[in-house]
Write a sequence for this structure.
């Protein structure tokens, strides 16, 4: 199974609410990039994000947190691709110490998960770089 992954630090510009809380939609931005990578790998085209079947926000994300977003196919149709997404927090700012103090978490925290569907129109399909069978979760 092919997994696309992005790891990024949430910056001050991502904080939208009191206490430097990051807007949940930031996770969806990351999932869009993960979906694009998967579509390029499988179809040679970026595709179009069509819909989310569901999104679950499970833990808060703050400016300074390092987040890893992952995605993989769970179903592949003629033009549609259903994907599972997860976001994990690996590093967070320390509650004690200097403003620059941070902690690598002993266990990553699942902060968001979702299922989404993208479409790659037939006329946009190009050479398949990674066979679909290798990309779908078993």
């Amino acid at each position: 199974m092919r997994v696309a992954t992005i790891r990024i630090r949430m910056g001050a510009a991502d904080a939208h609410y009191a206490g430097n809380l990051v807007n949940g939609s930031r996770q969806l931005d990351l999932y869009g990039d993960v979906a694009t990578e998967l579509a390029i790998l499988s179809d040679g085209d970026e595709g179009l994000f069509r819909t989310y079947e569901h999104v679950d926000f499970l833990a808060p994300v703050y400016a300074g947190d390092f987040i890893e977003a992952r995605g993989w196919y769970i179903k592949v149709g003629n033009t549609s691709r259903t994907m599972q997404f997860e976001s994990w927090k690996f590093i967070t700012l320390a509650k004690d110490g200097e403003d620059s103090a941070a902690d690598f978490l002993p266990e990553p925290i699942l902060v968001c998960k979702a299922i989404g569907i993208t479409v790659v129109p037939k006329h946009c399909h190009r050479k398949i770089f990674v066979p679909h069978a290798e990309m779908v979760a078993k």
User: Anything to note?
Assistant: Residues 4-135 form a domain with the Thiol Ester Dehydrase; Chain A fold (CATH 3.10.129.10). The first strand starts at residue 4 and ends at 9. Strands lie at 4-9, 15-17, 21-22, 48-57, 66-76, 80-93, 102-119.
